Amino acid sequence: MLKKTRKTVNRTIQKLSGAEMIVKTFLRNNVKHTFVFPGGTIAPILDVIEKKTKIKIICPRNEQGAGYAAIAYAKLTGKPAVFMVTSGPGVTNAVTPVADAYYDNVPLVIITGQVGVTDMRGSIPVKQRGFQEVDTVDIFKSITKEALIVRDVRELPRIIEHAFVTANRGRKGPVLVDLPMNVQREMCNSNKFFLTKKRNYKKPMPPRKNIELLARWVREAKRPVILAGGGAIAADAGDEVRKLATRWHVPVVMSLPGIGVYPSPEPLSLGMCGYAGSQHANLAIYNADLLICIGTTLHVRQTGSLPKRTAPQARIARIDIDQNELDHSRVPINLKINADAREATATLNAILRRYSRDKTLTDGWQKKIEEWKTQYPLVVGRHTTHLRPQRIIELVDRVIQNRWVIVTTGVGQHQMWVSRHFNFDYPTRQLLTSSGHGTMGFDLPAAIGAKIAHPNATVLCFVGDGSFQMNIQELATVAELKLDIKIIVLDNHSLNIVAQFQRQNWKSHPTTGEKYNPDFAKIAHVYGIYGVTIKSRRDLPSRLATALRHKGPVLIHCHIDPKEDLLPMLLGGHTLDDMTFKSSFS
What we know:
Elements: E1 15-17, H1 18-28, E2 33-37, H2 43-52, E3 56-58, H3 63-77, E4 81-85, H4 89-93, H5 95-103, E5 108-114, H6 136-140, E6 146-149, H7 156-167, E7 174-180, H8 181-185, E8 187-189, H9 208-220, E9 224-228, H10 230-234, H11 238-248, E10 252-254, E11 269-272, H12 279-287, E12 290-294, H13 300-303, E13 315-320, H14 323-327, E14 335-338, H15 341-352, H16 363-375, H17 389-399, E15 405-409, H18 413-421, E16 429-432, H19 443-453, E17 458-464, H20 465-468, H21 475-481, E18 485-491, H22 496-506, H23 520-526, E19 530-534, H24 540-549, E20 554-559
Parallel strand pairs: 2-3, 2-4, 4-5, 5-7, 6-7, 9-10, 9-12, 10-11, 12-13, 13-14, 15-16, 15-17, 17-18, 18-20, 19-20
Antiparallel strand pairs: 1-8
């Protein structure tokens, strides 16, 4: 009897370095750009990217520049952006942008270099063993969805893949992977590591019973208001919010990260609420009988410092993908809906389609809101010969109307003036700003990331003089990459949002006012960027229009009134119906 012989197949077992495994994961996840500030402990990865892929390495002038550019890129693409830094100071310089991504729910995969495993301090009671060693995982635990270290090259593919999946599911956010140098360099047979199969993430199903109850509340409400936040944009819920507002004539107020969910020029849009919102938006919340909160945190900047008196006459319903946010809401809520903002609002609209709307129910409410808009203007009248920032922002808006526009800002008065006086309509006119963490210096690097993500968009960077000088060196990145970004510097020679707070409370501002500033237009020129200075109200319209039409990067240095306060403003200890219109200089 003949014995069957087993055929042997010669398989070439591929050996890969840890760095090659990382880059293969980048390619599997369709990474097109990486945002990097380099150093020795991430050099192996950079070498593989350069020699074996078409991934573009974007290298701004410091870690914050790279981090904020990555944040803007991730917000606009909806996919995790890769942000890489070296060990030691590279890691600690990355803390602020990573915190920014965490508090604004931005998906990042952060790769941090680390000293080799044998050089790590571990549990030994000394400060440091390896050069530029820091305990990265412990530093980042509280400001990431997960912070992980890879000690075995065989675990590397699974952990990197896990980082991409985790960053982009549920409430999005940053995931950090710390990579010892030896792990990046070690070789591993390709049959010795395995990728964990991606588990399908199931969003929480919209709770039908609760949404049925909310639908009844909508039908009964005489003074309804929608408060839309950044979660509505993250969930792409804009169309559903607009259907709900338009069909049932519900006015829409927005948090800072939610600006543009409902188009600014529409009659039902009340703009931004909160400490730097409008008095008519805040009055609408305060006097509402139904407040529908969609993807918003209801933090102090939106509601003021008296959360139990936010909307004292209203039933408050809150839609959020994070059950913890609902269970620990600052503002007491009457109805929790744990669901994706788009799916929950779509379900609500589908239920409400079965009913006809009694238009007369809310007619008086609409009339009252229009009266408030007239009674409480957004620009407080005062005589000045200086440039007023509100006028500059409105003129820029007018010049670039009918374009696809992405606006970035820093943090300060200019940020709030832009949210008040520029017309937004997501996704064709979108605002990118630092909201939860409130980071100065976000502005210019974010504009860089925005232009890389969407080269055909008109990218505007509005920035105050204080915020601009946090990352002014990124003008070099703009020039180097030849990015067509229009930078509008609103210069009042002060850190005036803090100075205003100090004047209101202590009648002085010892460190924040009368700052020396250079000629920013000349600095732009030195970097090879076209620069314009505007000081005169008479010259403003023509010079602004000419500069905005210039092809290529432009910096427009506007000298604005140093005594222009951000007014109206909600002060601590006051309810939403009681904003101050009084200048801090009086």
